[in-house]
Amino acid sequence: MANSSLIKSLENIMRIDDGVDGDSQYIGQITWMLFLKAFDAKEMEWEFKPGYKGIIPVGYRWRDWADDKEGITGGALIKFVSELFEKLKNLDTSDGDMRKYVVRNVFEDINNYMKSGIQLRKLINAINDKVDFNDAREKHTFNELYEEMLRDLQSAGQAGEYYTPRPVTNFIVEKVDPKLGEIVLDPACGTGGFLTSTIAHFGSITSTEELAMLQKSINGWEKKPLPFLLAMTNLILHDIEIPSLKHQNSLSKPLSEYSAKDRVDVIVANPPFGGAEDKSVKNNFPSEFQTSETADLFMALIMHLLKDKGRCGIVLPDGFMFGDGVKATIKEKLLKEYGLHTIIRLPQVFKPYASVNTNLLFFQKGVVSRGVWFYRLDYPEGVKSFTKTKPMQDKHFDPVREWWDDKKPITVDGKDKSRFFTVDELVELNYDFDKCCPFPHEEEEILEPSELIACYQAERSELNANIDRILSDITAMLEVKE
Fold first, then answer.
1. For residue 190, which of 128, 162, 165, 439 is within the disulfide window of CB 3.0 to 4.6 Å?
2. Which residues, 6+ apart, have CB-to-CB distance to 317 below 8 Å?
3. Is pTM, for the whole model, over 0.85?
4. Are residues 111 and 254 in the same domain?
């Protein structure tokens, strides 16, 4: 299902439409359609349950208007979709069925961007030809489809912030080791990658009791409509009938208003960083945590939300490692009250979406740290960087797995690759964790003139090919309009 040719064909159809402007809208357009198709597949399963009453009204289900290749099209289709959105945004929830709330919340901030009913019908038919959520083999591949979309639509603006490579989410969940029945939360869940990794970690669910426990275990919060929709679709496909996802900004509520009932057993997350919040948001936090850096605010929130002995695995950028001020305050608390025990220093695993080094921190609330093990995960032998065609894979964490259960110091070329730092040593460093097992300084490679010219010519050739492709697309669009 998830292949580049499918995404490219869908993208080409939407490019012709005047209403879809840019890659972020391509993703949004495809996603609401995939949600309806996936939800209809689940409804077909639920209909076998005694007393089941439909969620989406007859006539508005995917099967009713989208499955027939020769079905409604043109202006009539655009008009129908407008009615469909209005119907779903105002779905009658008076019977208390939470699944109706799910659908209504999903469509609250989602739009249909396409203006041509003919192109929309082509898009629907292409999706139906290649995507079958009734096929058991394809129910759990939604992550792959979305990741393929991001690889193919690299210029999707901030869409990359929703994406954490699956090997990273899988490794963090593996080492935090949530158990079925524990309350697991991702307060910045994006498309739900950490949550689906958690579901996979639980393994086979074989009884109705376990299924009920699964529904309660998985929880997420996400403020932006597109990733919220993606996460909803993702969890429904992973057998969460009523996803416990909240469409909310986790930082907009004063920390003091989160009580004991809001605390959870496990938090796994990759919070956004860079300071994209309203300035007033920091006033929701005690003075010692007030900052404009969203990653630091999320750290303060996460520390507050964990139960006593609650566990956390989190992705944080290098800026957290060497920063002082609020960052130093958080690091001090992690050592004194949150049992910080392991930090994995990663290379640039987020390429091509972001060129930033990140770190995985593991800690447990209510524990005094004995010290911290640092491990530097280098690129695999022969690999200089991860790319969209050669991304990070699960096996690239195998060196850490081999080291984890019997942690030992490792030195490479006279430099620490793994080392245990006592709390006193970290205090002596003024909590500058960046000095612990850093990556070797990368020297700029100076090429011979002939090599430099060859590289320039190759890059110029690629640029010219891209220009030719764009001109060809523009010509095709003009021909269609004529």
1. 162
2. 273, 295, 356, 357, 358, 359
3. no
4. no
